[in-house]
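User: Structure with iron/sulfur cluster, tokens only please.
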Amino acid sequence: MWEEPCISGKNGSGTVFFTGCNLGCVYCQNRRISRDGDAGISISVKRLAEIFLELQQKKANNINLVTPTHYAVQIKEAVHTARDNGLTIPIVYNCSGYELAETIEYLGDDIQIYLTDFKYWDRQKAKEYSFAENYRAEAIKALDAMVKNVGEPEFDENGIMQRGVIVRHLVLPGNAADSMKIIGFLHRRYCDGIYLSIMNQYTPPIDAKLPEILRKSTEKDEYDSVLEYADEIGINNLFYQEGGTVSESFIPDFDGFGVLKTNDTVI
Ligand code: SF4
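Assistant:
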């Protein structure tokens, strides 16, 4: 229920978390599943398709694939199987932004919504925090491919997104200037062709070796200064978070809920 309002709506988004991630950010709040590898259940492509259909039966607004890229081939097959068996809701590709443009081209029409990060402008920070010095260059190429694939944002009569790109940017401690460079760039390049989601839910890691990120972003200066900048340059398509979001309440249990087969599977 905690995604952007046009993704979650009243019914919620049907999230499917994949074990592993193509980045390894030192501050990852989902590290149990993304980095540490101690959560996750092996399933078949057929079972994945069934899960998509079960989420649709539960009235989810969409299927929300979280850190999906290293399973792109299997996901494409599962989407085709699920579509053949009655899946009609949009597929959301919820990713780090560090993607190969070729992967996005490969996914083609099978993805309707990209919910993608744009994390860093500065090469050194990308290297220190996510071991991906070339993050910016790759993220721009991937984002160009995403916008080309899905086109302008479209919504249904209830304001739920059916197609489009939402770029998420998490404001990191001491990183407001970098955030402004990213936001300015995105606005110049895509204008109202995408939505921006500026986030303050940064949770300081317990064991990071970098002291500058062991604190939360200070809402009243760093986060607000980024929001004010977005307003100044005239960004219309914007989501932002209100106070009190820096907590562990956003972290799922990763207890396998919904992954194992139930009696009412539909394929
Ligand atoms: S991209 Fe997201 S899920 Fe992956 S390691 Fe970084 S913060 Fe975690």
